[in-house]
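ok trying this again, last paste got cut off
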Amino acid sequence: MRLLNYFQYRIAIIFGIFGILLSSLFGFSLFVSIHKTDDELRRQLLTQFQTKAIEHYQNTDALLSGDSVFEITVLRSDRDAVDDYLTELTAGYYEFTEQAVHVIKGVLPSQSIEQSVNYYLIHHSDNSHAINKNVDQILFTIVLIVLFVSVVGISIGLLLSRQIARPVQALQQQIRSTDPTDIAHAPLERTDEFGELSQAYNETLERIRQAFEREKRFSSYASHELRTPVAIIKSSLNLWQTCNQIDDPVLADQKKNRAFQRIAVASDQMEAVIQTFLLLSKRSFSDQESELIDLRKVITELLDKFQSVESYQHIKVETQMDSAVPLQVNRLAANVIFSTLLRNSFEYCAGNISIRSCENRLILSNNIDQLKIDQAEHFGFGLEIVRQLCDQLGWRVSMELKDSLLYVVEIIYRK
């Protein structure tokens, strides 16, 4: 029964059973219809002979004795011996299957009712017709026809099952040949349900591919973002240990305080990275997680933070923002987006940063220091984080490098 495990053979078996049942029904119907037709022909034959016999009787006053060609026997109640089962009949046509007899009973026309004579037209079907003489041969022929039609039906079923199962096998082959490292596949070029199934499978593969890409990017983000604070903490701990070898207590305390501050900053940075990745793990933010914030205030606080860094103090920042820009948004997500954009702007800036807000959009641009980009391991690392968080917030973001000198980021947010 292992064949039933395969779709193709299940279809073939169904076609075969259907063909056998259909051909059997056809054979049975043919056999019954032959007998019904034969019975109707015998009735017509007797009726026609009855008309002929009555006409002859009216013309000659003598009843025909029978018909040797069609094996019809004529009996009269006034002179012939008639079986009891026939005498009890009323005038009309009758068929007796057990006796294999077809009978028409009638009354000969007469002037006197007392002298009325019944006549019987009897046709014995067993000895008079090829159908009844050859029932076994007819049944054998019908059985052969049924077997032939069944074999043809099974053969057609096999061919059709292969044709029907072909797209299923193609889809199965496509699924089996899917490479986890390269899951891009072209869907089957079909417009039926199998084509839709293949298209749905490809869409599922694309979602899986995107999930793999997000996982890879997540690992890259984590390793990149955590590398710097871990290095700072490690170097600060080494500095802390060297303080034990300094004879001057004041200088040692200064170095310890400096190492402590660096560790605190690195710790805050690691906490921010962890919170960022927790945000990225969400598909969307609920309304309960949103609060009203002032965009101008958030940008101003972040600018103060970055401009206080010694290596960024030479960068000129130009801002054109409304006095208050209220936003109903997840505060942490918005803070990560704007801090990431500003950090990249300061990190790769050649000297000028411009921040403008109008209506429901924020435009941030800065000129590019090509040398810093060439020396960096990743240019603008974190921009993918910004894209994903903007998608989760329902914001639209565009990033464009213009004339190889100016990098422009435009965010269209919901108020």
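PB: full thing came through this time. Residues 7-60 form the longest helix (54 residues).
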